[in-house]
Amino acid sequence: MLRHGHLSAYVLATVEFGGASDEEAALISVPPYHVAGVAALLSSTYAGRRMVILPEFDAAAWLEVAAAERATQAFLVPTMLARIVAQQQRSGEPPPSTLRAIAYGGGSMPAGVIESAMRHFPAVDFTNAYGLTETSSTICLLGPEDHRAAMTSEDSDVRARLGSVGRPLPAVEVQIRDEAGRCSVQVGPGSSSSAARRCPASIARTGSQLDDGGWFATRDRGWIDPAGYVYLDGRADDVHRARR
Q1: Which regions of the chain does DSSP assign to beta strands (E)?
Q2: Greatest CA separation for the chain
Q3: Structural domains in the chain (count)
Q4: Which residues of the chain have pLDDT under 50?
Q5: 186 & 100 share domain
Q6: Sign of the C-alpha dihedral computed for residues 49, 50, 54 and 57 taken in this order
Q7: Are residues 80 and 33 located together in one domain of the fold?
């Protein structure tokens, strides 16, 4: 159960009241029963941003509505973004001229998809937003500048950040723990372990899901690089089932 206080804490901590300009319009095509849909609706309401609802996702319809309604921003899951890019390639039409920001999450983003999207939408700021329903939405962000730096860098470590979920938000702590629950100081793909996070109690889901230190075990496996970027490589439960 997510209480009003959890969602309100997330919105109040991340959105400026009435901060949207008259030109802004959010195209919402993720379902409202998903935390990303709830966050998009509440954030736009608090910011005073016009919302355009697409009841059923279709790549061609998404591009058409984005252009007709002069959408400035949207949230997509990786499969949606892949289909939109493919549809634009087929049609040869230019991207919606007003589109300025696309956030994505809800699943692993293939490097080829985000690279292709950045090439086809050069004026768009891309943000990878990682979070869980239990955390009232986003806990890590890979922002637009991170995307551009990774896309253009010749440094393999920097370029690899396109495959990360970014760094924790200022109010969030993230730890990588081994199977015994001990905090691991190792970094790098070879040290993949389960992730845990801690944030203010007003944002976190309360109850038995939190340990005595206020940490919530995400059950996502991953690692953190020396610069603090978080990488995920699957669910701990899936790994355990595969081993059995």
Answers
A1: 25-28, 50-53, 73-76, 101-104, 125-132, 137-142, 167-168, 173-177, 193-198, 216-224, 230-235
A2: 56
A3: 2
A4: 186, 190-193, 200-206, 239-244
A5: no
A6: negative
A7: yes
